[in-house]
Every structure is written in C-alpha cells, then in structure tokens.
Give the backbone structure.
Amino acid sequence: MNPERYHLTLTSAGRLVQHGWWASEETARRKFSSWVGEYGTLPDARITLTDEETGETLTKWPEPE
C-alpha cells in the first residue's frame, strides 16, 4: 500500500491551508467528510481528494455548479 496515494487538500481564499495523505481510500473519504464539516465555512473553502496514483480527482467540495 502506498502511504501517500490519497491526497486531501484544503484551500481557503486561494491559499493552501492544510493537506494530508492516506494509504486507504476509505480513511481519506472519512477525512474528506470531516474536513467539509470542520472547515467548510472558511472563506472560499475548497476541499479536494485526489488519487495520486491515477491522477484522478475522486471528489471535491463544493461541487461545481
């Protein structure tokens, strides 16, 4: 298992605020949900979960309109 496969980033007002990596997609998705609840009220908050192995964006918040 690649310990840095799933990368979660949080930006606010265009600046990186926090990021983390997890080997488990399940854990990364739980963190994603947690971050939306904890940090979703920051100015212009954007939270993105990416699979670093494939380059695919798995989910992001808020969803594009």
